[in-house]
Design goal:
5-stranded mixed beta sheet, 3 domains, Immunoglobulin-like, mainly beta, 7-stranded mixed beta sheet
Length: 342
Amino acid sequence: MLIYRLLALIIVILLAVAAGCVKVNPDAVSQADPAAMSLSEITTAAVVDEQGQAMGVAREDFNADTPTIYLSARINNAPEDTLVTAAWLFFKDSNNQELNRPLYNDSITVKGTRYFSFGHRSPSGASWEPGQYVIKISVNGREYANARFKIKVPQKADIPAPTITFFKAEPEAITWGQAVVLSWSTTAATKVDLSAVGNVQAVGNKIVIPAVSQEYVLTATNSVGTTTKKVYVEVTSFNSDKPELVIVDFWASGDKAYYKIRNVGGTEAKESLTGLYVNGLAADQSRVEILASGQERVYAFPTLKWSYGTQRGYKIPVRVCADDYNRISEYDEINNCLVLDW
């Protein structure tokens, strides 16, 4: 039976090597128990699914304008609290000069059998620098495998014009003091600019709080040309003798989720509750103290452990709602929620 288990482990490793440009540490393999933990299907990809599995054909060559490059793998029979880390290096430039420049360090704690992935945009935020890259994968501090990929030197004939897949504002009409989420997606752009903000990533979103009605312009540029799209946000001011609670920001740091709440109304807002909804489900609530007119505060959601990280191949729908139970009489009862894809 031991011989059969050893043969099975060798097959798993061969599949991982075939899936991408992968070099496995022979010491880590030879000392492993065939019935215990292993890594397989190690590859680099341009797209992964929600489980972290690479979608489409495994790749080791990418264009410089690839928005995000992912390392994807499957871990098998991992004991609880198994730590997998990945160190990304810019190994050689397009002139074959060895650099070994550190870029990113990722980590994830896993258990059982599952897929996982780490994804990164280019370090500059625009296009990837042509050359060879190495991702060193370790398990519980022991180097297990190296995944390699190349960024091709772009030829002008191969460079498509930049495109803006979408650019939108949600909501497009607000009352003064309310937040708006601008979101966009571009392809083939080496530089993306958002008016009133500046340089931004090729795919992303931005929370803005316009004081007056205004137009936002997204501009995508590369060596072939430039394209733009516009959205218009209408801002209505009001004189209110009532409180008006709005969520003006949301972010995560470590395992905590935070938000900023503001009373833009004309009178004091009594104590209230703010609700957090993730993937359409209630996740936590936060108690808000009395807010004077014009006052704002930052709160954390007290019991939720934020486990979604910041580097993913997919977006999470998040909704943060002030006065979650609608117990405060306000001028506008439908502007309490900030909705965004995180």
